[in-house]
Design goal:
43% of the residues lie in helices and 13% in strands. Strand 4 (71-76), helix 4 (80-89) and strand 5 (93-97) form a beta-alpha-beta unit. The chain has helices at 11-23, 34-40, 63-66, 80-89, 101-131, 142-154, 171-180, 199-207, 224-227, 243-255, 281-286, 292-298, 315-329, 339-347, 353-367, 404-415, 421-428, 432-442, and strands spanning 3-7, 27-31, 48-52, 71-76, 93-97, 161-164, 189-193, 232-236, 257-258, 267-268, 272-277, 301-304, 336-337, 372-373. It is built from 18 helices and 14 strands. It starts with a strand and ends in a 14-residue tail after the last helix. Helix 13 crosses helix 15 (353-367). The strands form four sheets. It has a five-stranded parallel beta sheet with strand order 2-1-3-4-5, sandwiched between helices. Strands 7-8-11-6-12 form a five-stranded parallel beta sheet. The protein has a two-stranded antiparallel ribbon with strand order 9-10. It folds into three domains: 3-127, Response regulator (Rossmann fold); 142-306, Rossmann fold, CATH 3.40.50.300; 309-449, Orthogonal Bundle (Helicase, Ruva Protein, domain 3). It binds adenosine-5'-triphosphate. Adenosine-5'-triphosphate (ATP) binds at residues 136-139, 165, 167-173, 236, 278, 318, 321, 354-355, 358. This is Response regulator. Keywords: ATP-binding, DNA-binding, Nucleotide-binding, Phosphoprotein. Residues 436-456 are annotated as: Disordered.
């Protein structure tokens, strides 16, 4: 039963309200002023406070600060503007006198329901944060604990951060976590992959350009660095930044100023830089390919992400997390990973790291027809499994980083001469019927239907 504190100085109205609420299953405590209520009870101990705006002594709105329960303010018609003011101060609702009983009960019900939901959400959020110390980053092993610790410490500062790690280890995820936990979290996060922009365009893309600054530049345009003003600039693969662009970036970091390509004047920008690379920047400096002064500017704080093969104990948890995420994204019922699948994943070296695992799981989810994902569906050998990859001397196992369609094609073409249709289908984690359909769709007929493969 929800407990309501009713604060109303007019005895007739208070009694009528008390009866109405009690009839509808609420427990009610009454007071004629805030002072009296505070003397008698802990204001925090109620599920809801229903207070008149005009009371002897403090107004009803003063209750808002003294309780974590939702507060509904009651007011007469004449003072609707002050009711609006009450909402601004944090009341969850207001009801105008004289009351319509149904309306009042509806307001009470709604306030209680919303408060319950808020509390549930807060509990859920706390649970998620407890499970994964930094939102959305799974990892319990010692090296990942160190990563989380660094994130906590460095995120709230304005220090430049250099994230190091092989491709697919989660560098962008860490950059996002740093931004979200910084004072700049309400500002933009601009993520730029320096390796993905052609060298001839990168300066203009990053720093903007003036009208006619180079062939093809029709109008003036601001760059990505300017768009990050007030927020965070994440430069992925910073080792790929051409020399001239390195100079411009240094100026932004040193002087807080940006000069567009083709412009003589500078504009002020306020950015925090997070950079990432899978390359050895010190070696690039030694080889004269990366400016030493820029290196020292960005290498203030390092966060090193270990490759997945060095955090094998985290693989089961990570695989389940990615499977759940993928099923949700693809609108599929939740699937499970068999014990053998988990073991196979723990044995594998994951050269493409977490991204490769994510792709492998996504492919298995799309191909799967049952509720459990087996090692074969992941394209991995079970410990003692008879299925591919085949015996020594046979063809190379099919690569894991292919698109779904290409993986199917390669798998079938690689193994169809040495495997029955049943074994092929099992290896792909699909039924024989689905294999036949896919063969039709992808234009890879069974060798038996025109060639000499085995049937099964
Ligand atoms: N510890 C982790 N927990 C959960 N998901 C992860 C984790 N690490 C990486 N991922 C996921 O793996 C994918 C690849 O991560 P991300 O893009 O951050 O890697 P990256 O190191 O920036 O890769 P690249 O260097 O190739 O750009 C993303 O979808 C990311 O959400």
């Amino acid at each position: 039963m929800a407990e309501v504190l009713l604060i109303e100085d007019e005895a007739v109205i208070r009694k009528a309200l008390q009866r109405l609420l009690a009839r509808n299953g609420y427990g009610v405590c009454e007071a004629d002023s805030l002072e009296q209520a505070a003397e008698r009870w802990q204001l925090d101990g109620f599920d809801l406070v229903l207070a008149d705006l005009r009371l002897p002594g403090e107004p009803g709105t003063a209750a808002i600060e003294r309780t974590s329960a939702p507060v509904i303010i009651m007011t007469s018609y004449a003072s609707v503007p002050s009711a609006v003011e009450a909402m601004r101060q944090g009341a969850v609702d207001y009801v105008a006198k004289p009351f319509d009983h149904d309306e009042l009960l509806l307001a009470v019900e709604r306030a209680l329901k919303e408060h319950r939901l808020q509390r549930q959400n807060a509990a859920l959020k706390a649970h998620v944060e407890r499970d994964y110390p930094v939102h959305g980053i799974v990892g319990d092993c010692q090296p990942m604990q160190q990563v989380f610790e660094r994130i906590y410490k460095v995120a709230p500062t304005d220090t430049s951060v250099l994230i190091l790690g092989e491709s697919g280890t989660g560098k962008e995820l860490v950059a996002r976590a740093l931004h979200e936990r910084s004072e700049r979290h309400e500002g933009p996060l601009m993520a730029v992959n320096c390796a993905a922009i052609p060298e001839s365009l990168i300066e203009a893309e990053l720093f903007g350009h003036e009208r006619g600054a180079f062939t093809g530049a029709v109008g003036a345009r601001s760059g990505l660095v300017e768009s990050a003003d007030g927020g965070t600039l994440f430069l992925d693969e910073i080792g790929e930044l051409p020399h001239q662009a390195q100079g411009r970036l240094l100026r932004v970091l040193q002087e807080g100023e940006i000069r567009r390509v083709g412009s003589t004047s500078a504009r002020r920008v306020d950015i925090r830089l997070i950079a990432a690379t899978h390359r050895d920047l010190k070696a690039l400096v030694a080889a004269g390919q990366f400016r030493e002064d820029l290196f020292f500017r960005i290498d203030v704080m390092e966060i090193r992400l270990p490759p997945l093969r060095e955090r094998r104990p985290d693989i089961p948890e990570l695989a389940r997390f990615l499977l759940q995420k993928t099923c949700q994204r693809l609108n599929r019922a939740q699937l499970a990973l068999s014990d053998e699948a988990i073991e196979a994943m723990q044995r594998y070296d994951w050269p493409g790291n977490v991204r490769e695992m994510e792709n492998t799981i996504e492919r298995a989810v799309i191909l799967s027809e049952g509720a459990t994902i087996t090692p074969e569906m992941l394209g991995m050998p079970a410990a003692a499994g008879p299925e591919p990859p085949p015996a020594e001397g046979g063809p190379e196992p099919v690569r894991q980083d292919l698109s779904l369609e290409e993986y199917f094609r390669q798998y079938v073409l690689t193994y169809q001469d040495r495997m029955t249709e049943t074994a092929l289908a099992r290896g792909l984690g699909i039924s024989r019927k689905a294999l036949w359909e896919k063969r039709q769709r992808h234009g890879i007929p069974r060798p038996g239907s025109g060639g000499g493969g085995r049937s099964g």
